[in-house]
């Protein structure tokens, strides 16, 4: 069966988020014990349906589109991105990107969907042979996500089944598939998989600008030229009898590399084992225990998506938002504000290294004139993008870097990267207006929606940055500066209340910028910073029909656009504001929709923009709803944090196991001691280092040995 035309497949995928209403039943089912979600296609009455998932290794990312038509015929195509194989122009979107279809030549997407040259080949996926007069026809029976692997099970009209396991190479440049032919019947069947070797090449020529330093002459650009080898390889399985209950396997690789590099064999089983080991390692660290298996499972999935998408570039590891667009490049929001403060809690060394590397890259642009640092550094660190001007990026640096360095708990690294925090806060101080608030050209939505000259997001991030930087200054022995930052934060808090506090649409909340009389999603951010002056009105506004939808918050009332990032900030803030019974139903509904609905198994970036891409940093924000919202963890020192648990009334316990932050490993246990009192224990190596009861909504300080 030919794959549906890409426009049709794309249309099906684009409808998944928009069409699912509040009453739509789950399409996927959860096996909580195995952390597996599966779609029973054979029993699904709502066909056709298709979906897509992004998965990544250090040198390749794959966006796999899959599904079934009305007759359950398999739909499948793979889009591969190679972040370190650059094409011209060498900008944000210059990672080599090729789409592989089953019966059409590979398409070079950077080249305006240009078909790559191949000769004598009409099929670009191995053909399965099954004895009998009728060629086998694949019908999708079941799809599953488990251990970072997409599993597609089809039945063949010859009486056999074929299982595809799709996953990226961890270190190499191949998107891999492991095919297994199975005989579930009672009689032997003769079958096999044809071998396939397709090779094409693509000449490249791009400009490498080299690493630039603010205030220094730019290095001489170098033109890099050569060609890339792009291949599809499968050794095949010769036709042979397959006995009842027997299975045979073979590997399929979609790969690209420089043509002058040696072509090495792919160890499919070893790659599969490494992928599973990565997932299980992340599952064991920062483990959530609560009465809701959907939350526990999406928490695990989110850790994988946030950690897997890091590119090993020639200038060090860089977190990659992904989505078919954003690789070998870093942003002040995704990389520094969203994902960096998350990595220390997992103990994932490669994630921490990527954050430290990103901070170093941004610090190269610090300058004595306090001109804004670029919003994004691209092309493996050799160029930058600053098309939206100052989006509040310096506030993002101050907030994200301070939180990350405190949670990392490494004094030497903190001293190394402390200058960027101080520079960023001085920049913000110089942007202060006569009203005592901080001006910026835009916010992180880059003029998609109005943000005025002074917006709430930039100011709240500055406030949070000042508070965390004061804690960092204290740890580094700069007490005078710590006092200065605390004084500035209090002054800014008072100025923000005067400037942004307002009655909007009848709600006692905030205007997002001067002159705006509509509700915005980002009015949630004061709650995440512990500001509860307008808590009730803000929560009512967020959950009102003007903003709340089955997909979370609209960016602005009256629009049709949503971004999961603001919804996740809002849920985190409502939990942190000690309103768990308001937050939990919405958190559960959104989690179920993202894990078991029509577009799974991760939270997304936005819709309609990007069509609900599985960007990586949003998954980190999902985890932070739990760590910073439900548990209320706020870093206060290299070995200390504030804990403000928010236990829903329907729960009697929750725990975080094997938390790896603050240079340590520990467990957090929260139980209900009485109606309005919580029992909190911090465990290390099986021993309680803190065992305390406190009133619900109160916080306590935890100091680790």
UniProtKB/TrEMBL annotation:
Gene3D superfamilies: 1.50.10.10. Residues 1-18 form the signal peptide. The keyword Signal applies. SUPFAM superfamilies: Six-hairpin glycosidases (SSF48208). Keywords: Signal. This is Uncharacterized protein. It comes from Geothrix limicola.
